[in-house]
Specification:
- The chain has one domain: PEBP-like (Phosphatidylethanolamine-binding Protein, Alpha-Beta Complex), CATH 3.90.280.
- By secondary structure, the protein is mainly β.
């Protein structure tokens, strides 16, 4: 399948699509991950991965752009939701905060509204990936196994 949107749906009880992410889930608040739920995953999904990325961040780095806020994987195929602050239940990758945990929105002062893409990827098999993968390394590992994906976009403006 590669990286193409599918019928999967990703939602959060904390914010609506293209809605403002509550301060609680940002670097200005408690900095806890929002609750997430996904539906309509392919029946053959054996595992999931999640990513949160801000393409509006004014940062460029070798091989990428924007800012990675969360990389979470090794989520079993039987799981269809994460509770608030539920990222410690599975394997965390490396974020651009140089940490292995969720880091919420915190755009630069005066930089306007940023868009935060929460992605869910359905995989055709469990991969048992090591902790600390960057978003790029994770995507390289999972790409041959992606059988469904979709995103939820939230917004945040500092201040």
């Amino acid at each position: 399948m590669g990286f193409a949107l599918s019928d999967m749906q990703l939602s959060s009880s904390a914010f609506s699509p293209h809605g403002r992410i509550p301060k609680k889930h940002t670097g200005e608040g408690e900095d806890v991950s929002p609750p997430l739920e996904w539906t309509d995953a392919p029946e053959e999904a054996k595992a999931f991965a999640l990513i949160c990325h801000d393409p509006d961040a004014p940062l460029c780095k070798p091989g990428g752009y924007g800012f990675v806020h969360w990389v979470l994987y090794n989520i079993p195929g039987s799981v269809t939701s994460l509770p608030e602050d539920g990222g410690d239940r599975y394997t965390n990758g490396q974020t651009d905060f140089d940490q292995q945990s969720y880091g919420g929105p915190m755009p630069p002062e005066g930089h306007g509204t940023h868009h935060y893409f929460f992605w869910v990827l359905a995989l055709d098999r469990e991969l048992d990936l090591e902790p600390g993968l960057t978003m790029e390394a994770l995507l390289e590992q999972v790409e041959p196994h992606v059988i469904g994906m979709n995103r939820l976009v939230g917004t945040y403006k500092r201040g």
